[in-house]
Amino acid sequence: MGCAGSKIDEESKEIEDKAKQMYAHGKFEEAAPLFRDLLEVRRTQLGVQHSRTIASMNNLGMLLKSQGKLDEAELLVREALDVRRATLGDRHPDTLMSINNLALLLKAQGKLDQAAPLFQEALEASRATLGDLHANTLTTMNNLGMLLHAQGRFDEGALVLRHVLEARRVTIGDRHVQTLTALNDLGLVLKEQNKLDEAAPLLREALEASRAALGDRHLDTLTCINNLGSLVQAQGQVEEATLLFREVLEARRATLGNRHSDTLHTMNTLGMLLQDQGQFDAAAPLFWEALQGARATLGERDPATQAYINSLGMMLLAQGKLDEAASLRQELGLGPLDEAELFCVSAAAAPPVSLNCNSTLDCGSVGSDSSRL
Q1: Paired strand residues for 372
Q2: Degrees (nearest 5) of the Cα angle 249, 316, 282?
Q3: Who contacts 233 (Cβ-Cβ below 8 Å, separation ≥6)?
Q4: Structural domains in the chain?
Q5: Contacts of 263 (CB under 8 A, 6+ apart)
Q6: 268 - beta bridge partners?
Q7: What are phi and psi of 177, to 5 degrees?
Q8: By the 8 A CB rule, do 144 and 123 touch?
């Protein structure tokens, strides 16, 4: 019986490691059934309150978050947190990780007021139990800084993120993946404050470090390229921005597929850049492909689909194709077209993106910031 149990544990560990590797390489659709099957097996064989079952809940929840399936993810992450509070207590490192992950999920859903007290709870407990310079404490602090940024409290957010960056440079070095997360996130906050000259060297350093540490096509590297592209676009460096977004699009097609939401967004962003340069023939197929992909995967009324309709409509107006533009306006429910009137739905530009280093997969016992999505 012991041997059989040991064999099951070994097989489960192999499946879990394989699923994590798939996730790390952006193969979400392939990883999801492995995580789902593993969770069901552990629920049945080990019970709901076993640490490995809770780890599987957490891992599947964070994968679903990355797929944009936020409601389903929330159920799992909340369940994992409830069990950990009940069995481990409020200040156990695993409980703090679950608090952090639920807060990140709520932030992704736009529930900032619900996320804030969770980040505060996790930070207070982490400081008390692990110390101010522990990796998990700095991770939670970084997440709180980005929440302040999302709430429009830019100065407060920047102050917190500067502290995290300085602490990580001292404790783990300039090229550690957690340091590049801090570089990236502080750069984003400074960009939002229109401090472009301060943000640029941080985002360039983050990209250089990510290429060196993770490779050109790692998801975090692509996020860094996206963010630098957004910055140089804001600086008016359109040619460099175009090259960067072309690189992101090519890599996302290869790693995530043509219809992943991130790939579609990059198509739209690159299309707008090309349109701004008068390259309508190059922009048009990107706008159409993004719209068709969003309709198929997200639905007609999804905000992203609506934004892609808007982007295409704006280009058609610029080309003088009023009949086609009028048809798209009707799809947006904007009424008849006045030649002097523009579409009024904001087009989707390339948003700055925080790296995923601050939500964690479980290692089976204590989850840490180094156990990265």
Answers
A1: 360
A2: 35
A3: 241, 273, 349, 350
A4: 12-111 (1.25.40.10), 131-253 (1.25.40.10), 258-350 (1.25.40.10)
A5: 249, 252, 253, 256, 257, 293
A6: none
A7: -60, -30
A8: yes
The two structure tokens encoding residue 162: 């500067």
Place of tokens 């699009």: 249
Instruction: Report pLDDT for 338.
Output: 53
Q: Tens of pLDDT along 92-133?
A: 999 999 999 999 999 999 999 999 999 999 999 999 999 999
Pair of tokens at residue 92: 């156990």
Which has the closest alpha carbon to 87: 118, 60, 122, 51? 51
pLDDT at 313: 87
As a whole number of angstroms, the distance between CA 147 and CA 279 comes to 38
- Does 63 have pLDDT greater than 50? yes
DSSP three-state, residue 360: strand
d(C-alpha 334, C-alpha 312), whole Å: 15
Location of structure tokens 């016992």: 365
First to last CA, the chain: 35
Both tokens assigned to 49? 């309150």
Cβ 314 vs Cβ 341: under 8 Å: no
